[in-house]
Amino acid sequence: MRPTRRTVWWLALLALLTAGSARLAADEPPAALTPAEEQLASLRAAWHDRPLVSLTAGEIGTGLDLMSVAGQERAHVHRSAVSSWIAPGLGHYINGERGASVVFAAADLALGVMSAILVARLLPPSVQSRNLNYLQSSCDAIRTRWRSLTPAELIPATVVGVSSALLSLTVRSLAAADARRAALDALGRGTVAFGPRPVGLPPLTPSQPTPQPCSSPAE
Questions:
Q1: Residue 116 · residue 165 · CB < 8 Å
Q2: 50 exposed, middle or buried (CB, 10 Å; 0-12, 13-18, 19+)?
Q3: What does the alpha-carbon distance between residue 167 and residue 177 come to, in Å, rounded to a whole number?
Q4: pLDDT, tens digit (0-9, with 9 covering 90-100), for 4-62
Q5: What distance in Å separates the CA atoms of residue 186 and residue 95, rounded to the nearest whole number?
Q6: Coil, strand, or helix at residue 190?
Q7: 174 found inside a domain
Q8: Is residue 112 part of a domain?
Q9: Measured distance CA(106)–CA(170) in Å, rounded
Q10: Residue 76 and residue 153: Cα distance in Å, rounded?
Q11: Contact between residue 103 and residue 89 where contact means Cβ atoms under 8 Å apart
């Protein structure tokens, strides 16, 4: 198999792992309810045995307001988790946890730097930067040097690269899960709060009579 084709297969596998990890990171456990969702659940339990026609306009308005706030809170939790998966620590920063933000960001940065150094050192000597000037050499010379390598020579660097990618996905998943927890804590403390939004229908206004032009009485 040609090196280019091997690279495509490795990138495709890494993309699948990345997509799966992002999907798992974005899924919240069903037991983790936001404050508005807990209030809405209590309200639904109180209304369980009541017929719909017995609800007053104020009670219906309260339910709609809670549904609006619950949707915004759930979107905030989801956004915090995805943000920390894309950039570890970002979701914590959004929710005011600066210490955790620095820890996750530093861990991801250190892992990336160490992985790059190890992969560069484990490459075959003929393609390392000290023996091949990538800035001044022609593309044909670089391509020829890489195509002369055997698959066995690339195994150490490949193993370290894939292992580092999996470790990075693990760190990002942990950061996303903890950012979800941070978002729920911020909502519970009230440091992050949302207000009800209108349903989206235009407000009802009383219709005004259309003025009629004055006319002289018929003779």
A1: no
A2: exposed
A3: 15
A4: 555 555 555 555 555 555 555 555 554 588 888 888 888 888 877 777 777 788 878 88
A5: 6
A6: coil
A7: yes
A8: yes
A9: 15
A10: 47
A11: yes
CB 81 within 8 A of CB 91: yes
Amino acid 47: pLDDT: 78
Around Cβ 118, how many Cβ atoms within 10 Å?
Answer: 16
Give yes or no for a contact between 162 and 63, defined as CB atoms under 8 angstroms apart.
Answer: no
Instruction: Identify whether 8 is part of a domain.
Output: no
Task: Note whether residue 29 is domain-resident.
Answer: yes
CA angle, residues 191, 197, 199, in degrees to nearest 5? 155
Segments forming the whole domain that contains residue 171: 14-189
Q: How many domains does the chain have?
A: 1
Phi, psi of 92 (to 5 degrees): -70, -40
From CA 168, how far away is CA 4, in angstroms rounded? 24
The rounded radius of gyration (Å) of the Cα atoms in the chain is 30
Host H or E run for residue 58: helix 57-86
Backbone angles phi, psi at 113, to 5 degrees: -65, -45
- Write the CB contacts of 96 (distance below 8 Å, at least 6 apart in sequence): 186, 191, 192
**Separation between Cα atoms, residue 216 and residue 7, nearest integer Å:** 90
Element (H, E) at 90: helix 90-94
3-state secondary structure of 109: helix
19's tokens = 């997509």
Given a cut of 70, the residues of the chain with pLDDT beneath it are: 1-31, 198-219
CB-based contact 78:177 (threshold 8 Å): no
